[in-house]
Every structure is written in C-alpha cells, then in structure tokens.
Amino acid sequence: MFGKLAAVLLVCVLCGSGPAYSQTLHVISVADSNDGPIGAGTAANSKALQNYATLVATLTKLSLSFTSVSGDKFNCTEILKSVADLQAKPNDVIIFYYSGHGFAPESDPSRPGMAATSQFPWFYCNPPDSRPNLEAISRELKAKGARLVITVADTCNVILPVAETPLAAKGVIEERIRAMFLNYKGSILITSSKRGQYSWYYPSGGIFTAKFFQLLRDPPDIDHSKLWDAILENAREKIMVSSPGQQPIIQQPEIPIPELVFSR
C-alpha cells in the first residue's frame, strides 16, 4: 500500500513578454532519500528536477529559488512548512515535486472517520496525523497567486533509463520550452497512477518521472498553443511494468483535462 506513487501537476501559467514576466522560478523538491527500497530513486528524481529547473531558468531568465526537503529533513511538518512559507508574485512560477511513498486511504488521515474524497494520493511521512494530500497541496500552491504552478508527486514508480536528448543546436526546442512556461495561464493536475494502482521505481528514479521529464525536455514540434495538450496526451499513456516471470503490470497515469489559456 505504501508503495503507491502518484504525480500531480498543477499549472498556473505564466504569460506576457519581456521584463514583465522575468520573475522567480520557485522549486520545492521533496524526496524520501533515506528510504531503503526507493531512496536512491527519489534522490535521482530530485536531481532530474534540479537539472530541468536550471534549464528552464536559463532559457526564461527567471531567477531560480530551489528548496530541498530530503534526507533527515523529510517529514510531514517540513513538507507543509515549505509550501506554507513560499511567497510568490503574480508573474512567478512554482514547481512542487514529491518523490516518495504514497497511499490511497479509505478515510482522510487528517479527519478520522471521514471518507477520503480525493482521487489523488496522500504522502507517506511522519507524523501520521498531518500527512499531506497531493490535491490539497496543489490548491494551496495555486492560491499563492503565481501564474504557473506545477505540482507533481511521483510515488513508488519504476524508472526505465532514458538518455536525455542533447541540448546542443536545439534552438527550436528551447523556444518551445520558453513558450510552455511563459505563454500559458491556468492549471494542470497529474497523478502517476490511478487510485488503487501502484507506481514503480528503479534505483535511478521513477518510470513516470523519466518519461515525464523526457516529454518536458523535448516537447513536440507543433503549434505553441497546443504544446501542453500534446505533452499531457503522451503522459496519459499506460505504463507497462515488467518483472521476470510475471505478467506485466499496468500503471495508468490520471490527468484531468487541464485548465489552460495560451496567451500569444
């Protein structure tokens, strides 16, 4: 049960041009890196996130503010505090990425006896009575007022090693990434597996995270106004998890229709 991993993406997109949107990229990376089975994988996820955030900051000229909640700091209190303490301006971008165990309880951990209403996972951290819910985190971050808010939780996912696409001579791709983070406004919510399903990890990270960042780093060659739609359509595809001597296991990401507006 504790191996369930979910990913949520909430986007409150940034639009405009020039210095008006050259603000701050706030990144909160939460990784249960001390966990025995998946610690190495969560640390790999966090490193992938940091590398991608650095790329985005370079291409968009956004100042990068990176907060890590991992190792001995990994607990419910620190996770909630990192979210509560974040201060954003209207043209800022927020990325929250959780890598660790998650679960789908029958009752809400914060309200004993009350049925769990969210289809998105709770984080498996201590203390038990304050375990965050991914959907609740996304709502709190959206309320910060930033134009682009991305909230992701990858819990218990298997990563298949995927070579990163070289960035040399990729001016067109770089322009697409800039458009993704500067020309949209709205929100996106993603979980790496449907309620009742497991997500999977290799020591090098989660399979959903590997696939998702590959999509983010190499967006499709289409009209800029359809970039996020195309990325999310690919991210929705079923993940087949193979294990020696066993039937493949299906992991199905759940991604509601995003609320996005392309500004230019």
Low-confidence stretches: 1-21, 156-170
CATH architecture: 3-Layer(aba) Sandwich
Strand order of the largest sheet: 2-1-3-6
Q: Count the E strands.
A: 12
Classify the secondary structure makeup into a structural class: alpha/beta
Strand content: 15-25%
Overall number of structural domains = 1
Number of helices: 6
Order of helices and strands: EHEHEEEHEHEEEHHEEE
Helix content: 25-40%
Provide the fold topology.
Blueprint: E1 24-31, H1 39-60, E2 63-70, H2 76-85, E3 93-99, E4 102-103, E5 122-123, H3 134-142, E6 148-154, H4 171-182, E7 184-187, E8 201-202, E9 205-206, H5 207-217, H6 227-235, E10 239-241, E11 249-251, E12 259-262
Parallel strand pairs: 1-2, 1-3, 3-6
Antiparallel strand pairs: 4-5, 7-12, 8-9, 10-11
Helix pairs in contact: 1-5
Which key features would you list for this structure?
264 residues, disordered N terminus, alpha/beta, two-stranded antiparallel ribbon, Rossmann fold, 4-stranded parallel beta sheet, globular
